[in-house]
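Technical annex B. To support the medicinal chemistry partners, we prepared a structural model of the target in complex with 2-acetamido-2-deoxy-beta-D-glucopyranose, based solely on the information shown next.
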Amino acid sequence: MMDFFFSILIAFMTFLRFLTHPIYVWFAQGKKKSVPPITNDILRINATELAAKIRKKQLSSVEICQAYIDRIKQVNPIINAVVEDRFQQALKEAKTVDDYLTKCALNEEDLEKIKPLLGVPVTIKESCSLQGLSYAVGMLNRCGYKAESDGEAVARLKTSGAIPLLVSNTPEMCCCLESSNFITGYTNNPYDTTCTSGGSSGGEGALLGAGASVIGIGSDIAGSIRIPALYNGIFGHKPTARIVSLKGHFPYCYDEKFKSCLVIGPMSRYAKDLKLMLKILVGDKQATQLKLNQKVDLNKINVFFMEGTDSILETRVQSEIKAAVQDAVKYLSSQCGVKVKDHKFELKYTLNCCGKHIFNIKDLPDPLKGENDNIFTEIIKTLFGQSRYTPNLLHYLLVNKIYDLFVSDRTMEFAQLKKTFIDSLGDNGVFIYPSAYTTAGKHNQFYFLTTTAAYTILANTFGCPSTSVPCGLDKNGLPVGIQIMAAPNQDRLCLAVAEELEKHFGGWVPPK
Ligand SMILES: *[C@@H]1O[C@H](CO)[C@@H](O)[C@H](O)[C@H]1NC(C)=O
């Protein structure tokens, strides 16, 4: 009975989406802007190659950082993705790198081993904590708050020689699939500014999509890396649970479920850079255990796939996304010798099962409780523009309440599904699946795109790795993408397939 109400609610919201869609399109008419074309060729070189060129002194770190800083300054007025920058310090650090290299006694190989990203600029999602920069994460009551130290993931990137340029935008407390808040405002999609860049790593997504960053880090508890990766046409990897330290991330809590669902992971414009970054984020020992240095033999891989579950409650997957899943499977089997398995998983109820699992997390910081505010009065106040909390956050809290009240506990069903899924994939299987059922929606349309996270949430609740791969543009010029999942600790399979599919689909394409 409870679940029946939940199904009705989703069907109703889907119906409202159908009714309201023309209104969103009408309001966006004529307002579409996109970012200017890329003129500096440095911006088209992958991070792995940039690092090599710096070591060989073919390009200076200053030159590269300056190219990115110029590009960010050019596009940020259009995409509004930057919360706070550190351009001056970054250029100083780049100069130090260049000076060091002129008198460095180490050979290139050793240098690569100890500082694989020496001199390469990187961008950081604000919630990952970059020392000295804003750490408000879109919350008015944290406004002006600066990170006292680097999050562990950020520290590892710095140790590898990377130079952070800025912290990028998120929704309030990272609780939405649209990156907007009362401090920085809305982040726009570089392919169409009337559309969202997604969330919660939407600032990273927009910067990378716009060619204003080459590598970055984001975090993902239900799709927050992979959905912005989809919407902005880039690569994003959600690592296996617990292999990348979450130390320093905000929000954080001690519930074991939280620590296994939330991950920090790499986002990039070029597939190859994901692996380099993942190795740095997990450290040498873990990289060896995960066999990240071993070549993956594609013709030993089994591919499972689904174009969607027709009933992630009545929402149909966009035809271009379905076609991309088909095309990927066809390419992998005809060109790379993978074995295609026609086993389908019973994923109809993932939204219930996995959603319930996530919303059962206890002890998450409750932004309202500390302040003695109440969600229902805040929702009334927000209608009159009087709440201190964003509609995004209130929407999230409301959905949380709906799950508490109207979705039954499916622990047994969930455990069974997880076991079947992981056992089927084993140590040589990948699962190709949509990252979401549509390409980027208009700003604020997420209220009606209720089941967006249904496709991504699976990997979080199962602890599985998953890589979002861009597959060209749809008829409106918005990026299409799919995700490649694997069983826990098989990240290398996702990454190898992503690199292969980049060749086929052409990877990131600059916005026009
Ligand atoms: C990285 O960039 C270099 C220089 O543009 C290019 O030659 C190389 O093929 C790229 N590698 C990959 C895997 O994209």
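Notes passed to the chemistry partners:
The domain at 2-505 is CATH 3.90.1300.10 (Amidase signature (AS) enzymes).
The chain is about 40% helix and 15% strand.
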